[in-house]
């Protein structure tokens, strides 16, 4: 089944403890992206990747890192999480990097930082 | 500033009603406009629009884009309780970067 898989689905952690949220897609998509969704603010882009080894900042990149060493994987790293990073996170991918195809979303990761 | 604005913010209707959701945008180098439905989980794709005036239709849902006036509408006819969700509008554009920008959504509640 074609899908975007995120893990974990739920994560509770403490301030400062490094964590990684994994994202994998099996559709050979070029474009991958991370979003956070907060009430009243909608979906905001954190980072995106046009292809392997090509990443760029979105609108809210502070406090996050990403890497794209393989086409299928695009992990999101929080080196030192803080409570303001408590949010619902979505990974998404689309077929081409020229943005003429729709985004397909993973099921989300609800992160709580205490 | 690039932005996508959806209206209304929320809407309550009764089963059988027809609703129209609005999405206006201001971006440079527009590529496409997309509609998504979000229930309690991930947004699911409904439509992608790239050309003005061409209606996309799927069952009771339809959508159209006006690239001159920079807006799109999503129509839902004969609404059902299963249509209750947040409807998101997104615009793909290039402005030195390659991005999708989302509106904050319209929350639709359909009462039985």
Verbal overview:
- The complex is a heterodimer of chains A (114) and B (112).
- By secondary structure, chain A is mostly beta strands.
- Helix content of chain A is 0%, strand content 50%.
- Chain A contains no helices and 11 strands.
- In chain A, the strands form 2 sheets. In chain A, strands 2, 4, 5, 6, 9, 10 and 11 form a 7-stranded mixed sheet that branches. A 4-stranded antiparallel sheet of chain A has the order 1-3-8-7, with no helix packed on it.
- The radius of gyration of chain A is 13 Å and the shape is globular.
- Chain A starts with a strand and ends with a strand.
- The mean pLDDT of chain A is 94.
- Chain B is mainly beta.
- In chain B, 0% of the residues lie in helices and 62% in strands.
- Chain B has no helices and 11 strands.
- In chain B, the strands form 2 sheets. In chain B, strands 2, 4, 5, 9, 10 and 11 form a 6-stranded mixed sheet that branches. A 5-stranded antiparallel sheet of chain B has the order 1-3-8-7-6, with no helix packed on it.
- The mean pLDDT of chain B is 94.
- The interface between A and B is medium-sized, with 28 and 24 residues.
What is the average per-residue confidence, as pLDDT of chain B, rounded to a whole number? 94
Classification by helices and strands of chain B: mainly beta
Molecular shape of chain B: globular
SSE class of chain A:
mainly beta
Distance between the termini of chain A: 36 Å
Oligomer: heterodimer
Q: Can you give the helix content of chain A as a percent range?
A: under 10%
- In N-to-C order, the SSE pattern of chain A is EEEEEEEEEEE
Helicity level of chain B, as a percent range? under 10%
Radius of gyration of chain B: 14 Å
* Major pleated sheet of chain B: 6 strands, mixed
Poorly predicted sequence stretches spanning 5 or more consecutive residues of chain A: none
Q: How big a fraction of the residues of chain B is strand?
A: over 45%
Q: Point out poorly predicted stretches of chain B.
A: none
Please give the count of helices of chain A. Answer: 0
Q: What's the order of the H and E elements of chain B?
A: EEEEEEEEEEE
Instruction: State the total count of DSSP E strands of chain A.
Output: 11
């Amino acid at each position: 089944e074609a899908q975007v898989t995120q893990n974990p689905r739920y994560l509770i952690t403490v301030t400062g403890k490094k964590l990684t949220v994994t994202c994998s897609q099996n559709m050979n998509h070029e474009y991958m992206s991370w979003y956070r969704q907060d009430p009243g603010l909608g979906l905001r882009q954190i980072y995106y990747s046009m292809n392997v080894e090509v990443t760029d900042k979105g609108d809210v990149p502070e406090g996050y890192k990403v890497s794209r060493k393989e086409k299928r994987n695009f992990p999101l790293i929080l080196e030192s999480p803080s409570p303001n990073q408590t949010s619902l996170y979505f990974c998404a991918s689309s077929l081409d990097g020229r943005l003429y195809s729709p985004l397909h979303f993973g099921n989300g990761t609800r992160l709580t930082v205490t | 500033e690039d932005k996508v604005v959806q209206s209304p913010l929320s809407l309550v209707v009764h089963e059988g009603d027809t609703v129209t959701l609005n999405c206006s945008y201001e971006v440079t180098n527009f590529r496409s406009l997309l509609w998504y439905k979000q229930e309690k989980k991930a947004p699911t794709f409904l439509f992608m629009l790239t050309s003005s005036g061409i209606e996309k239709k799927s069952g009771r849902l339809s959508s159209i884009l006006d690239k001159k006036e920079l807006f799109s509408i999503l129509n839902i006819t004969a609404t059902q309780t299963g249509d209750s969700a947040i409807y998101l509008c997104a615009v793909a554009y290039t402005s030195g970067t390659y991005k999708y920008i989302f509106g904050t959504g319209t929350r639709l509640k359909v009462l039985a």
